[in-house]
Amino acid sequence: MLNDSLPKYFDPRKYATQEVTLEGRLPLRDFSELRELLVSDEGDVSIHLNFKVDEDRRYIAKGSMSTTVQVVCQRCMEGVDCNLEVELALGFVYDEEHANNLPKEYDPVVMTEGEVILADMVEQELILAVPIVAYHEETGCNPVALKYASSADDAPDDETKPNPFSILADLKAKKS
Ligand SMILES: [Zn+2]
Asked: Which of 37-51, 52-66, 133-147, 153-167 is the least confident region?
């Protein structure tokens, strides 16, 4: 039921004036940019946002979103679950210049023709929240994958030695 309650687009000015509360879920598979950072696009993100006009007449929304994403463990290179709990404080602006005037506590969200695409806004906030490097807990790595990952690391580095075949290829190239 909640799935249907989230709009695709919204007008932040209208929502703020009416003090709308948005609550619902979006599937992770809808976020094409985010998906490239993830091992799996299973699951969804739950969103809770309260819109209002603040004391300085800004259109803002505060709330949170939470989800579990699967990212690559940098030790064993297998997927590891990562819980994201993101506090949101968004300020809706007309352009970049307007964004620069926004107090630091707000993340600027630019309105295009007075509207915001909800999924794009949520995706950008999620991308910022995904850790750049992630690891399993100390004993959580897949032992087989771990062995493979570390033996690949210990392999002699061929890149530093000139490859005789490439030298030959270079000579051939110079002759012709
Ligand atoms: Zn691991």
From this structure: 153-167
- 50 in a domain, yes or no? yes
Residue 158 lies in a domain: no
CA of residue 151 to ligand 1 center, whole Å: 15
Compute the distance from residue 34 Cα to the ligand 1 centre, in Å. 21
State pLDDT tens for residues 71-127.
999 999 999 999 999 999 999 999 989 899 899 999 999 998 889 999 999 999 999
Q: Is 81 domain-assigned? A: yes
What sign results for the dihedral spanned by CA atoms 115, 119, 125, 128? negative
Domain count, the chain: 1
Structural domain contains residue 34: yes
Domain that holds residue 65: 2-140
Q: 130 CA to middle of ligand 1, Å?
A: 17
Contact 106, 90 (CB under 8 A): yes
Q: How far apart are CA 81 and CA 68, in angstroms?
A: 6
